Automatic annotation (TrEMBL):
Protein known as: General substrate transporter
Record organism: Ophiostoma piceae (strain UAMH 11346) (Sap stain fungus)
PANTHER family: MONOSACCHARIDE TRANSPORTER (HXT8), PUTATIVE (AFU_ORTHOLOGUE AFUA_2G08120)-RELATED, PLASTIDIC GLUCOSE TRANSPORTER 4
InterPro entries named among the record's database cross-references: MFS_dom (IPR020846), MFS_sugar_transport-like (IPR005828), MFS_Sugar_Transporters (IPR050360), MFS_trans_sf (IPR036259), Sugar/inositol_transpt (IPR003663)
Domain Major facilitator superfamily (MFS) profile: from-to ranges: 15-460
UniProt similarity note: Belongs to the major facilitator superfamily. Sugar transporter (TC 2.A.1.1) family.
Subcellular localization(s) per the UniProt record: Membrane
Record bears the keyword GTP-binding: no
GO molecular function ontology, one term from the record: carbohydrate:proton symporter activity
Keyword Transport attributed: yes
NCBIfam families with a match to the protein in the record: SP (TIGR00879)
Record-annotated membrane-spanning stretches: 12-43, 92-115, 121-138, 150-174, 272-291, 303-326, 338-361, 373-395, 407-425, 437-457
Keywords, sorted A to Z: Membrane, Transmembrane, Transmembrane helix, Transport
Highest taxon of source: Eukaryota
Length: 504
């Protein structure tokens, strides 16, 4: 296999982590409203009753703020494939940074709630595209043996963004200027995309995108800089990897990549559905609802003032550490195994949390409320270590280069749609049915985990080009002649392809 002789360099690691500033942008911006909702000065400025007071109008504004952000994310997921394929991964990152910066300025400068909502919508477009392009790019520049570890930096930096948003909210709580309390957190959304935009000229273009666009000399130069093998002074390993990529792209170019082909060709359709399913299932654990409304959840457990903000900050700090741990071991234990364990663990912890809220929520029972806090932390232990970063890694690996932007975009669309559904109704659901809303995040993962365990394909250790063989695609075999392939479709699938006009 081409990837077995290829190792990474510190330059490669540095590039992967620098681009992950986009991941931080997604995490910080997605989470910042959760901390703003914990600041009474925000509600006072816009003449809204305090969060958690049970008033329908405030709940509607909270739901609309997160709902419009997710709605913008849907547009971002649909737009990103054309942007990334037409202009390249690097140029796409630069354009997305501009969207994130301008929409953040609009939010921080808001003088009317509508202005804030518009800013959140466009910020949702930008951050969703960032959530697609970063793991996509990282997967295309990472060697197979450590791809999980490197792409896992996306999930890690996403949660670091959550964490710094939480500490920002905690620090802002003590600000003496009421407007500074909530405007500063929103303004800080500018920092990460601005740094990424300024440093992006130093980032190399994806070698796979360069090969796909017949810029072979540039692509090989990038590969030689990114990858090397011990003692390989002539970069033979990188050249072999480049030839493998080029030959596979030549095979892929003979295939139909239209929407019709994606729908009708079994190997493509399966991957698109798998990516969407993974992200939707991950959100169906309730993770984003718990994250965005955690301050309100703590209020329901009888905790007020700065304490909910401090607990939320510690929660996201723990989650960031666990994402790092998960990314360190995923190349050893495998994607599907870790995802299955994580989903099952989340179900158990949400069940316990629901029981604590149902029994002790709104009471003064310190032991019961303490266990309520404990199970929130236990929940993120499973989610952070086994689901969060791993889900992004898996989705970024599933697709051939020619469909990777579309495929990862469609996968993240599953996350955004689930987030839109769950967060839009969350404030009203907590007001009207309380702890029973948790049942949604118990039933769906219970049904989904067995499907994940028994029907999803493991991808660890393979190059992106070799993964296609797992789905029945023709894959170039570098030890054979250029016309020989491995992973040919079974006869039954070849027949199906012929029936719909798809030639392999």
């Amino acid at each position: 296999m081409a990837g077995e002789a290829v190792t990474t360099t510190w330059y490669n690691v540095g590039i992967v982590f620098f681009v992950a500033l986009g991941s931080f942008t997604y995490g910080f911006n997605s989470s910042i409203m959760g901390t703003v909702f914990g600041l009474s000065s925000f509600f006072d400025y816009f003449n809204l009753p305090q969060a958690g007071s049970g008033t329908g109008y405030t709940s509607s504004i909270e739901g609309a703020t997160n709902g419009l952000y997710s709605a913008g994310g849907i547009f971002g997921c649909l737009l990103i494939s054309r942007l990334a394929d037409a202009f390249g991964r690097k140029r796409a990152v630069q354009l997305i940074c501009i969207i994130c910066i301008l929409s953040a300025i609009l939010q921080a400068a808001s003088v009317h709630i509508v202005m804030l909502l518009v800013g959140r919508f466009f910020n949702g477009i930008g951050t969703a595209m960032m959530c697609v392009i970063v793991p996509l790019y990282q997967s295309e520049v990472s060697p197979p043996s450590v791809r999980g570890r490197l792409v896992g930096s996306h999930g890690f930096l996403v949660v670091v963004g959550y964490n710094l948003a939480a500490f920002t909210g905690l620090g802002s709580y003590f600000a003496t200027n009421p407007q500074l309390q909530w405007r500063l957190p929103l303004a800080l959304q500018v920092v990460a995309p601005l740094v990424l935009a300024l440093g992006s000229p130093m980032v190399p273009e994806s070698p796979r995108w360069l090969f796909e666009n017949h810029r072979n000399t540039e692509a090989m130069e990038v590969l030689c800089n990114l990858h090397s093998a011990p003692g390989d002074t002539d970069s033979n390993a990188a050249h072999a990897e480049g030839e493998h990529i080029r030959q596979q792209l030549a095979i892929d170019d003979t295939q139909d990549h239209s929407l019709r082909a994606i729908i009708l060709r079994p190997s493509y359709r399966k991957r698109f559905l798998m990516g969407f399913y993974i992200q939707f299932l991950a959100q169906s654990t309730g993770v984003l609802v718990i994250n965005n409304y955690q301050v309100i959840l703590y209020n329901g457990l009888g905790l007020f003032g700065y304490l909910p903000l401090l607990l939320y900050a510690m929660y996201t700090l723990w989650a960031a550490f666990l994402n790092w741990v998960g990314s360190m071991v995923v190349d050893r234990f495998g994607r599907v195994r870790m995802l299955t364990i994580g989903i099952i663990g989340c179900v158990l912890m949400v069940s316990c949390e629901a029981a604590m809220v149902a029994t002790y929520g709104g009471t003064s029972n310190k032991i019961g409320n303490g266990f309520g806090v404990f199970f929130l932390f236990a929940f993120v232990t499973f989610y952070g270590s086994c689901v969060d970063a791993v889900s992004y890694i898996y989705c970024a690996e599933l697709f051939p280069t020619s469909l990777r932007a579309q495929g990862v975009g469609f996968s993240i669309l599953g996350q955004v749609i689930a987030s839109l559904i769950y967060t839009l109704i969350a404030p009203t659901a907590f007001d009207q049915v309380g702890w029973r809303y948790y049942l949604v995040f118990i039933v769906l993962p219970v049904v989904g985990a067995p499907l994940l365990h028994f029907f999803f394909i493991e991808t660890k250790g393979l190059s992106l080009e070799e993964i296609g063989a797992l789905f029945g695609d023709h894959v170039f075999n570098e030890s054979a002649t250029p016309v020989d392939f491995v992973g040919a479709l079974p006869a039954s699938e070849e027949k199906k392809g012929a029936e719909v006009g798809i030639s392999d």
